[in-house]
Amino acid sequence: MLQTVALSILIACIITASFLVFYLVVILVYRTLQRIFVGRRFPAECTKEAIEESQELVRAGADKAQEIISGAQLFNKELRRDFEASLNQIMKKQLGSFEQMSRQVLDTYKKSIDDEKRLNQEALLSGTNEIKEEIMSEIKTFEENLHKETLGSQEMVEQKIKQEYEKLEQELKDYKEQQMRKIDNNLYKVLANATEKIIEEAVDLRDKENIVMNCLEEAKREGMFNS
Amino acid sequence: MMIKTAQEINKEIENIDAFLEHLYKTSQGGAERIQHSFPELLKDLSDKNISLKDPGLVKDYLLALRLKLKNIERVQISLPFSPSTEFVNKVMSWFRQAFDSNNSVQIILDIDVKPGLLAGMTINYRGKYRDYSAKTSIEKYFGSYRSINELLS
To answer: What share of chain B is helix, strand, coil (3-state, %, to 5)?
Structure first.
């Protein structure tokens, strides 16, 4: 009876130790995965590595438990078989849980990768649109500036042509007036000469004397001889 | 009113100069020449009771007369024709009538000929100048138009 109680206590200790070992293994796996994710390594590689490391750690834990169990001389064969079966069952269960958890982690990671990818694509698309808008804006500005420059040059050329035209027009006008003045002066001379000839021939001496007397009267009327 | 032509005045001044030249040449027949050549001046001297025996006095009188003649106011008239004596007398007559109210006036009628005037005359008296010539009238007439077109319109 005493023997049975001692055996039960021993088994309970072993199971407790096994759980502790398993707990440590899970913590180690979690930290390893966390380190891998934080490092942002390639997901498939990371997951595989994490699983391998976890399995290694579980195996190491199982080996350690097996070693501890083998070391216990108090086990009888039957008890030992039951214990090993229980242990295998626990291991299977734990491995299944671990596998499920790894899958969840992997899914979460995939999801985060997909989200990030989607965000990156959106950001890239948004950035592309921004760049496109910026380029279009710059092209538009350039077109406007070019248009302004072209218009400015055109206006400058038009202004220059206008000035030259006005200058030429004024010169032509001046030249025309000058020539007209020359013609008029020549015509005046011709007319004056003709008039003089007519007067010389038409006015005789007596008329000239009368004109002089009339001029004297006019001078007198104008006060020429007033003191 | 005393009115003479510039030619008359110039002749008088020439006579005075000639008289003065012979005044001191009594040994060379100057006295005889004076007696023959300057009857008007001699009459004038006689009227003034100036004797030829006092040449100094004669000289002073003639020089004063010369200066007076040169300083008589002139009416300068330019005519387009050479005036006949008859016409000059007519003009002088007109001046006598024009200045009839003032007998103290003495003027010299200085006439010259400028055919270019065509007709009419120019007159200058006491700095006042008038141009009544046909030449200037024609020039003014044509000059008042800015162009031949304006003249013809």
So the answer is: 55, 20, 25
Question: Interhelix angle for A77-202 vs A43-71, to 10°?
Answer: 160
Residue B125: what are its φ and ψ, rounded to 5°? -145, 125
Report whether B110 contacts B6 (CB < 8 A): yes
Check: CB of residue B95 under 8 Å from CB of residue B111. Answer: no
- Nearest Cα neighbor of B87 from A204, A202, A212, A215 is A212
Cβ distance B118 to A196 less than 8 Å, yes or no, reads yes
Residues of A with CB below 8 A from B127's CB? none
Does pLDDT of A52 surpass 70? yes
* From A89-98, A172-181, B21-30, B64-73, the region with the lowest mean pLDDT: B21-30
- Per-residue pLDDT reduced to its tens digit, B94-146: 988 887 766 677 888 899 999 999 999 999 998 999 999 999 998 888 778 77
Q: What angle in degrees, to the nearest 10, is found between the helix axes of A77-202 and B134-143?
A: 160
Condensed to tens digits (0 to 9), the pLDDT of residues A131-145 reads: 889 999 999 999 999
Q: What is the pTM of this model?
A: 0.50
Alpha carbon distances (Å) from A9 to A4, A14, A137: 9, 9, 82
Q: Which residues of A touch B73 (CB under 8 A)?
A: none
**Inter-chain touch B123–A215, beta carbons under 8 Å:** yes
Residue B2: strand, helix, or coil: strand
From B152's Cα to the closest Cα of chain A, the distance in A is: 11
Which of A200, A212, A215 is facing B118, going by the closest CB pair?
A200
Residue A75: pLDDT over 60? no
End-to-end Cα separation, chain B, in angstroms? 53
Across the beta sheet with B106-113, what order do the strands follow?
B2-5, B106-113, B73-79, B122-125, B128-131
Q: CA A171 to CA B139: how far, in whole Å?
A: 30
